[in-house]
Fold this sequence. Notes:
Chain A is an alpha/beta fold. Chain A has helices at residues 49-57, 106-111, 120-133, 150-162, 180-197, 208-214, 232-237, 242-249, 309-312, and strands at residues 6-17, 21-33, 38-42, 64-69, 72-73, 89-92, 168-172, 200-204, 217-222, 225-231, 298-299, 305-306. In chain A, the strands form 2 sheets. Chain A has an 8-stranded mixed beta sheet with strand order 6-7-8-3-9-10-12-11, sandwiched between helices. In chain A, strands 2-1-4-5 form a 4-stranded antiparallel beta sheet, covered by helices on one side. Chain B has 2 domains: 7-89 and 171-258 and 267-312, Rossmann fold; 100-168, no CATH class. In chain B, the strands form 2 sheets. Chain B has an 8-stranded mixed beta sheet, sandwiched between helices. At the A-B interface, helix 5, helix 6 and helix 7 of A face helix 7, helix 8, helix 9, helix 10 and helix 11 of B. Chain A: Keywords: ATP-binding, Nucleotide-binding, Transport.
Amino acid sequence: MTAPLLDIDELAVEYRSRARGAVRAVAGVSLSVAAGEIVGLVGESGCGKSSLARAAVGLTAPHAGTVRFDGRPVTPVRWAKRPAAEVGLQMVFQNPYASLNPRRRIGDQIADGLPAGLPREQVRGRVAELLDRVGMGADTAAKYPHQFSGGQRQRLAIARALAGEPSMIIADEPVTALDASSQAQVVNLLVRLVRELGMGMLFISHDLALVRQIADRTAVMYLGKVVEVAPTARLWSAPSHPYTRALIDAVPTIAARPELPAVLAGEVPDPANAPSGCRFRPRCPAAFESCVDEPALLPIGDRASVACWLTTNGATA
Amino acid sequence: MSGSALLSLDRLAVTLPGGVPVIHDATLHVEPGEIVGIAGESGSGKSLTAAALLNLLPAGSRVTGGATFAGEDLLGLDRAGWRRIRGAGISMVFQDPTAALHPMLPIGRQLTEHMRRHLGLSRSDARARAVELLDQVRIPDPQRTLRSYPHQFSGGMRQRVAIAIALACRPKLLIADEPTTALDVTVQAGILALLSRLRDETGLSVLFITHDLGVLSALTSRTYVFYAGRVMETGPTGALLSTPRHPYTAALLGARPHGAAGVGSLRPIPGSPVVPGQAPPGCPFAPRCDFATADCTSAPPEPAPIGTDRLSACPVAPELEVTP
């Protein structure tokens, strides 16, 4: 197997606060994304998805572990120029209203991502190309963000991310703030870019149905840990972890005989005060004696791994 | 419509100050103990319909048509009348529970204030009822919760507190405007179960506004699909979602992720939604519709009956095949 494009290894992210002490938002996660692959990352809010994304792209310094992009370690962003090799790692944020500067023209903001020192003519040409790629007209360049809808703004944010000619995109809830019809447009755009340009994409969302439809592999996170990762079709048809099953059962579906989605008891615990042993134990309908020890994420065949004693009982980490 | 309806809107039209028409001829009814859905994208007028029902529209808005609630004409109410209806007759839960709760006041104060005013309860009676309400929405340790502040709770807990506040004065109708959109599916499942249980136990009627068709299917008995301030289609939710009879309903169904893993793409609705005040002269959906003919651009079609209990404002579309 070739080396993955993005390789996250035992990554941990900690925040310190006076009131709660050290909060481990990401508590040792390993995950990789290959070129041309879409990996979905799902989990409830507060599970550490966004902290993982920010550390993976270099916006947060990891507390432990490493992130390697194209074989090189990712260095946290500072007030200095980013190494050229890391410009290929780009991020699309959740809120397109906050991620574009309201007082600068679209064209100038997209041009920020182009290599410095290009002649003006070439810059204009590249900006027009990028706008065209995301389905926006060349006249967009002279306009301001407020002149566009949420879906259009998200496409502009994607155009800006593409200016660096990335080979890897981390998209953190990119369509959560959008309406159904613009959601579909933005998702299709991202998927097409991955397929056409051979990029890798880590697609973070709390919308399981959406991730199911586009991701090649899906990772499920709970309280700072990946509890299951598997090819998407397998994860949905045969979820191994009780938490994955609970998430899937909670998605309301359109059915001839309407049925309320199943309710998972309890709340996500405070990561500053994570339960001992398996972190899902207090809410797990299938918890038993072994669960007082924390299960490791172990392979269960065909690119799938799960961290649950029900599946990996007997095996030792 | 039936004479027993709790809420009935008859060709309700709303024009915002500045002359922007946002709701056109909306006819809708909610029966006692019924959970009714309103579906649509942003700008479809679904939230403004809710605002009109509580007289929360911007000052200077013009409302015409009819709106009756429990036999009372809403549009003829004075200030005192509205004060009586709000909270105790019709109450509302908003999308963002963080914005709906006062950050600096303890939950107990926010829960008891209107009970003391509307129901005339004493301080201790109001607290007792507050505990009962928090228990009803399954908040653990209600006594302690009364002394807590909103920031001490998760989003899902806050929304349950907001629902408890909305239910405090025993309203007959709860308007829920995208109450679960900002929440995780697991938390959403809890809120849906809660509303369903309240309907069963107390006969509460709910008008549930959402763009999530899966939620509508799970919770509601009938649905109104709004587009550009008009009702495009209405009927029993199951039938409406399995055999949509309006191209817009079908397009909404097609645009949602529907499960088949690895399909890799969604079917977006072409074009973009109508900007209020800039609707085309005919059917507002015509510019984005696959079935549009020349007739569609002259006048907006009226909702017409299909079978016994359905209406569709589309005279041209054949029965639409939807692959779920």
